[in-house]
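User: quick one, sequence for these tokens?
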């Protein structure tokens, strides 16, 4: 068993994690994308994007790089890496993207957000996998003496983006964001990073 094999029911049975749907974020003032991001997306979205891999390279990754630049490299991005949190319980496998606090280490350290590329262009299919990876990130952090109150997740087709938040339960956002709402999408990502910055400040 690996992350992609989990269902939301499995997560409730194995780890006692219930889920509910609600609005995760208030309405944010849209951020203005950099000229670099606008130019990059303008060029890459003209290319054929028939696969999840293609969309991750042409749409998702540039947006994540923009987020890293906006935050003076507070975060770093791992793509296609394995995260083994608890092999016996099946919390293992390859992750599309792992966003972590940048600690300057080679190994994955301090995961704060998991991202899953939705298969078959269907957001709902990716929710259980993303949720399982979020549970894995939480356990991984705890084993490395990093106890976070919550972990964020995101499932994306490249065009649609759905956010999740894992604390004592899993919250699935009622709202989906779209790549043509780039300013709002960046504002949501920025809010998430700001929350982790605040946690660091309080520590």
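Assistant:
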């Amino acid at each position: 068993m690996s992350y992609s094999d989990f269902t939301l029911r499995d997560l409730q049975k194995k780890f006692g994690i219930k889920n509910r749907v609600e609005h995760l974020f208030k309405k944010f003032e849209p951020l203005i994308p950099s000229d670099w991001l606008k130019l990059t997306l303008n060029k890459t979205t003209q290319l054929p994007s028939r696969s999840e891999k293609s969309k991750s390279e042409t749409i998702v990754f540039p947006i994540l790089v923009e987020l890293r630049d906006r935050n003076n490299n507070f975060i770093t991005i791992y793509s296609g890496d394995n995260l083994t949190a608890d092999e016996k319980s099946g919390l293992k496998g390859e992750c599309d993207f792992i966003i972590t606090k940048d600690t300057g280490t080679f190994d994955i350290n301090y995961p704060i957000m998991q991202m899953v590329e939705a298969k078959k262009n269907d957001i709902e299919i990716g929710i259980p996998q993303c949720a399982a990876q979020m549970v894995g990130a939480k356990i991984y952090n705890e084993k490395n003496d990093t106890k976070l109150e919550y972990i964020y997740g995101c499932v994306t087709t490249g065009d649609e983006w759905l956010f999740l938040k894992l604390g004592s339960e899993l919250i699935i956002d009622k709202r989906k964001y779209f790549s043509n709402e780039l300013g709002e999408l960046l504002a949501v990502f920025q809010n998430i990073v700001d929350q982790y910055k605040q946690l660091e400040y309080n520590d």
